[in-house]
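Researcher: Let's run the pair from yesterday's discussion. Sequence first, then tokens, for each.
Model: Starting with the first of the pair.
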Amino acid sequence: MIELFYKYKDIDNNLIFELKYNKNLIYNSLEIKPGENIISQTNINNFLFALLNEDDLKLYYNNDKFVILEKEKYKYSIKHKELEQLNFKPFPHQVDAFNYHVKHKQWLLLDSMGLGKTLEIIGAAELLYKRGLIEHCLIICGVNSIKENWLNEIKKYSSLSGTILGRKVSKNGKVSYRSVKECVELLKHPIEEFFVITNIEKLRGGGKKGKDKEKDLTAALLKGKNDFGMIVVDEIHRTNNKKSQQGAHLLKLSSEYMVGVTGTLITNNPISAYLPLVFTKNDNSILTTYRPQYEIKDADDRVIGYQNLDVLREEVESCSLRRTLPQIRSDMPGKFIEYEYIEMEPDHKKFYDEIVDGIGTQVDLINLETSNLLALTTRLRQASVDPSILSSNDIKSSKILRCLDLVEEILSQGEKVVIMSNFIQPIKTLSEALKEYKPLLILGELSAGERQHNNNLFQENDDYKIIMGTHQAMGTGLTFNSSMYLIMLDTPWTYSSFDQSCDRIYRVNNTRPAFIKVLENVGTIDTKIHEVLDEKKEYEDYIVDGKEKTVDRVQLESQRELFLRLLSEN
């Protein structure tokens, strides 16, 4: 019980109280100015502030004494002494996430990129463990390549141990991973480490009906020797296909504390929120009833738009925590995205036009299924970024030539630079052209350990000024904010992926601004892709961030119509 004893009123009409907690004197003279809220002034003591910072707290006055009764829910508040036991000093918004986690238990962490969601999960899990509420925390990575990053962050910031399920290190330091069958066997025995990390692909085992028990990792997680009281799915937006084996197995998992983590809940359309909501037990719909609530279909049963987005927005708000960098830091340095429009070199333009003409011929000859349309559209993007992807002729890429100029300018200022593309070939071309600077690579063909090693070198060693790779390999789980500059030779297909790539150099601890330069060839598919990204951004703005630009009913092109438009306009 907390008690505030009224003592007297001073000459300035300030109320002077004596503050006690469980009859122990804490403050002899607690001054409350006229018109001020008594509760808000108790932040003199961090411990009391954590207890009293509740909107619906009731004060009872009797015989010059205010009595604040502790309710059951106050035991969930994180105490100052608990925070001091962490291996890192959390930002205030991260403490808010800890409190939200222990109160809500099953929820979505939707903080924008750069706010330290990894540390929010690590800290929340560690606090629960030290309270004796959980024995293990299972982290499922929606992107396989970020497993090593999770392990690296746990080693750096947690006092508790962590392991990647099935990870092996040879005598010469080579890292490899055991099969699903071997991982199932491991789970039959107690695991010493607190954090256990795996990837979503490993949940595919067990067959369509789970008959192959030797490969059913989901069953082993639920019924094995280890109690996973907290289950986290990072980059949960990458796992949003319930019909896939891994999606179906993911929804079988259950624990007291369940968190879906992503900075980009809405990817292509509102239906992408379904699996995260169901996984965290915040929606009990089946997909066949969920879709009609939001989809608009034509007479041919094709999806042509979405409706009732306000309903979805309210559902997401009720079970999620979402903060953006500007909300957290009023002094946050700026993030500046600039599209630079390039006039192609004559040889490059001629080559691109020939590809367009060739695709036009193919469009008349082949069955235009979505997969074919995607392949044709991808070919246009390849022709725009680097002709060497499609031709053995020595045709210089206009984008690569411009990128080299920009890199030289940035390096001359003593700065570092990050370069990204959808395709490996232009990255390798740039790597060769810039070899005197010892550029570091982040590519899918490198192991997760090698990628993390290169990430660390770039962040910590000033001898390495350039790091480059694909959006797929670099766009999640890694931080490159030792550089202010990011050059994109092209953009990902979705706005969510584009935003993630941008925020690799824009994090909550930034002390300098971030400058992103996107290269677009004039008169090519680049411009149309740019328009598509802006259209997809509207979903995220409305449903997750609550921006009012988007109307409730959004009419859309089908994917087929989108590709046809991209092709026809080129």
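Model: Moving on to the second of the pair.
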Amino acid sequence: MSTTRAVWIFVVALTAIRLSMLATTDLEFDEAHYWMWSERLAPAYFSKGPAIAFFIRASTAVFGSNESGVRFFSPLLAAGTSLLLFYFARRLFNTTAGLWAVIALNVTPIFNIGAFVMTIDALSIFFWLAAMFTFWLAVEKSPRFSWYWPLTGLLTGLGFLSKYTNALELVSIVLVLALAPRLRREFARPGLYSLLGVFALCTVPPIVWNQQHAWITLVHLRSRGSLEHGFGFHPAEVLSFLGQHFLTYSPFLFLALAWGVIASWRRVNQQFKVLFLMWFGLPVFLFYLLLSLNKVAALNWDALAFLGFGLLAIHFWWEKLEASMTLRLGALVAILVGLTMSVVALDTDMLRVAGYQFKRSDPSDRMRGWKSATSALEKMRNDLETKLGEKLFLIADARDRASEISFYLRDKRVEGPGHPPAYIPESQDMVNQFSFWPRYDEFVELKPGTPRPEGETYTEENGVNPFVGRDALFIRSGDFNQQSRWGPLRCGATAKSCEPGRYFFAVTIALFLYEKLFPQTSGCSMRCPQRNVSCRTMAISAEDSGLYSTCRIFLRCPRLRRQVLRQFPWWYLFLTKRKASRFYNQR
């Protein structure tokens, strides 16, 4: 069997396995949020370009709004990246080098996670490698013009629409042309400028969108890098940034990669292949290494650098591996360790079975419990609506919970065109994409002939707020053993034990009956001037903590809360769900 056919069989089989696993966990926070983007297509979004939304929209249109539909393109992009890497390595070196490059890539933990969940990194890495390959083909045909030049610009632009970091690929391209003497004449030829022109066209949608939205993406990126208060110098952050790579890229594989890249530096001006691969990795890596002097960068931010670095390490180690049995055994151990870490990363329950107890929260909990928690929340909403005789809307304390709840609600029941199924607390600041969607604190134009609500007069806003006087359920993060903001949560409920790695939703309700203390607020006649919503707005706190979840209803209106705390600093009436039902019936 030829090596090329073996690679294809390996990639196809691995892709089939990954596709079969897509529905085994709930969506991760970002996946659910990107799904919400796909339901509201736009030229750009708060923090990212539009590519991820369009890909998810395409897959969910075919397979439905479920875990497999949202994640469908992730294994396919991983397969495409693997095949591109193989053919690129084969062109640079030989077929066997391409085979081992594909194997090393697919046992790397961070790549396996990216091949399972649907995030911008899967798109970004694919388009970065595709553009790097086509640029190599364009350079091979130099000085003749070829269509690989504008194709490189298009692929770089599509990468930019996926993740803005991909714009750094232009820096790599310019540096390669400037540092290779035989290619410097390309600055006087049309190829480079056709590349830049096509790329510039791809940047128009996000630039126009940001110009219309106060350049919010630039503000966000500055905040993400913790640059809003200046640039600091924190060497410990750099050590943390580098140290974490040993886990996410597998310790032996990352050590071999770092060794190969550092050792190849002395040949950067002697071999064009080394120069090419080096400068397709260094700009991204150095950018985030410098940024980590101020605050440690996220582990996936510099992933683009390791495509070029990985091929460079293959080039460095290949001849040594062929000559040394010891190194070959070491490479086999490194691959097995990486494979083991990848399997554990995808299924941490294996550690529990082995008896390992997490000292901190299990990272994979981010993809567990949301479906069951939302189902319990939906049942609670329906029960409360039956008791109160009115429809409730949902508010979550953060975009993560709002996105997960919005995805897993069976009855999404949006309040109007463009409205999300669950809102986040209103704010004058633009904190995420929810800030650009319709909100519950906004005024809408009063339809002609519609009577204005009694007692509600707006002089500055020509309209009404349809949420005034309505009740909402507020979902917030909580802990069963955590004390509440206004006092201890005494409900007499205890967490139940369950099998390791199995989760359920145990509900505890505590009700603060402020209407009994302040009769003048009965019937929600009291309005909060800051929020234009009912003072009787209630909240539910729910968090899947691994073995249990809790729910808590508490008073939300800031003005009324301050009034309560001044007059009754220690008066908290907490009831169990059974007793709370009796009070509801008495009201």
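Researcher: Give me one sentence on the second I can quote.
Model: The chain has two domains: 3-350, 370-444+462-586.
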